[in-house]
Amino acid sequence: MTAQTLVDAVVVGLGPGGEETAGLLGEAGWDVAGVEARLVGGECPYWGCVPSKTMVRAAGLLADGRRIPGMAGTAMVHPEYGPVARAVRRATAGWDDTAAVERLTVRGVRVLRGTGRLTGRDEVTVTGSDGRESVLRASRAIVLAVGGEPVVPAVPGLAATPFWTSREAVEATAAPESLLVLGGGSVGLEIGQAFGRFGTAVAVVEGASRLLPREEPEAGDLLMRVLTEDGLEVHTGNPLTGVDHGPKGFTAWCERGERLTAERLLVAVGRRVDPSRLGVGVLDVDPDVPALPVDDRMRVVPPARGVPGVWAVGDATGRGAYTHLAVRQASVAVGDILGAAGGGVAGGEAGGARGEVPEAVPGTVPGVVPAAGRSRAEYHAVPRVTFTDPEIGAVGRTEAEARERGLPVRTGLADVATSARGRIHRVGNAGFVKLVADTDEGVLVGATAAGPCGGEVLGALTVAVHARVPLETLRATVWAYPTFHRVIGAALEDLGP
Ligand SMILES: Cc1cc2nc3c(=O)[nH]c(=O)nc-3n(C[C@H](O)[C@H](O)[C@H](O)COP(=O)(O)OP(=O)(O)OC[C@H]3O[C@@H](n4cnc5c(N)ncnc54)[C@H](O)[C@@H]3O)c2cc1C
Ligand SMILES: NC(=O)c1ccc[n+]([C@@H]2O[C@H](COP(=O)([O-])OP(=O)(O)OC[C@H]3O[C@@H](n4cnc5c(N)ncnc54)[C@H](O)[C@@H]3O)[C@@H](O)[C@H]2O)c1
User: Fold this and answer.
1) pTM tops 0.90, yes or no
2) Reported ipTM
3) How far apart are CA 267 and CA 162, in angstroms?
4) Fold for domain 383-495?
5) From atom 16 of ligand 2, which residue's Cα is the shortest distance away?
6) From the CB of 321, is ligand 2 less than 6 Å away?
7) pLDDT (tens digit, 9 = 90+) per residue, 120-167?
């Protein structure tokens, strides 16, 4: 007979979203079982944010070294990928999650290895790597935090080749001689530019008509110019029609007839969850939905008399694939779960308790149990940063999205390179600040900060969009001279009265 364990809550998937949810519920005194198929901590610390930004940082140092001539003397730059591969292994503890498991256990969570799927309204069946099954029954909550998997597009021949996803790319011990990147989004451009700076001949093939197609067109145009100057070959609006792999590496054909060859092929065309593998049919959720449907309290199904509710957080909800969003959604879900349970259970301290926790996996903010039932998930000011050089930071709506929603839109644009700080910075100073205002409301509904430290400049804009700061308050704000963020003031001037 299959073993059954009764707990207060089951959290399936322990990436940033699941780890935060399970940890907060554990700190509230709940009996929580966390199920993880791979590594506790999820994509971000082992194959996502942390290793990719480790690569980006090292590549940035090389770029700065190459910028010395004409600015500060002479410099010979000899790239060596070994230290980066070692730094990635240090940052990921060699893809070992012992410390992460311990950190979660200290927060009161029991961690189970295996793949979980719903087998009842209150039941998760976990299949271990040995095929053995165990059953977890939740009396109060089930949370699905399963992230997503890289999408493999239906390009003829591709599936039969040994292509890389971001996982293999960050695990590389050497920079390849040549790399073909399929997809000009964040993954493709961050990793493509980084390898390019280590001497890899990089070609990017983006199916849409510009890079980062979901962001402002100015961002895609800027990256097209800078990356091309950096030596990358960029093809936009020219999808692949076929791929082959042989002893000499990859050969790919573009729709317009180009033939591209490379030692490695990185597929970076997005990520998605497969709800059908989670058994969501028991919740009367269509297994073919592209993401787990949630309301603004992260509920998939509300709790009913005697039946626990089911919540979902993170990438799997399809509301944006960012660690900071997954962690925020976790906080909203936990607030709602504690509220649904009447504010917590014995031993719990809903509403502001801080547990004794060791340092978190970089990217997550542990520790503060949210007040029961108070907050709702909001998406009007989700910040996002693509860590290319220049960085592309954006928050809220693009101009096109705002117009599509019928908002009365006015925009302001200012150039970073010709600003006081841009002139001082000189080489590597390309960038802009673009503001999207709703003129009826007199507030910003979106903004982009591209350039050196674009992600940092974005901080002020995120507050402005999130808190709906009146334009007149922003115009009266004093922006320090000569900073990059002072370009926000110039963009406000361009926006007009
Ligand atoms: C290369 C790359 C770079 C990135 N850089 C950034 C960045 O700079 N900034 C940023 O904010 N975001 C970045 N992201 C995105 C970020 O990694 C994700 O948004 C974040 O990890 C999402 O967290 P999550 O908890 O929703 O899912 P995940 O981190 O994907 O975790 C889900 C976990 O669930 C487990 N799981 C799945 N199915 C099951 C199951 N049935 N049973 C048990 N366990 C299961 C998985 O093994 C996984 O560990 C990057 C992503 C990539 C790929
Ligand atoms: N810095 C960050 O925050 C960061 C970094 C990396 C990844 N992420 C997250 O991880 C997720 C995955 O990143 P990603 O870059 O793989 O996805 P993405 O959705 O950001 O970009 C994928 C790109 O591939 C293109 N594309 C789709 N199908 C194609 C095809 N058949 N041929 C050519 N191009 C095609 C799309 O037009 C798009 O530009 C994203 O949602 C992103 O938010 C975040």
Assistant:
1) yes
2) 0.99
3) 11
4) Enolase-like; domain 1 (3.30.390)
5) 270
6) yes
7) 999 999 999 999 999 999 999 999 999 999 999 999 999 999 999 999
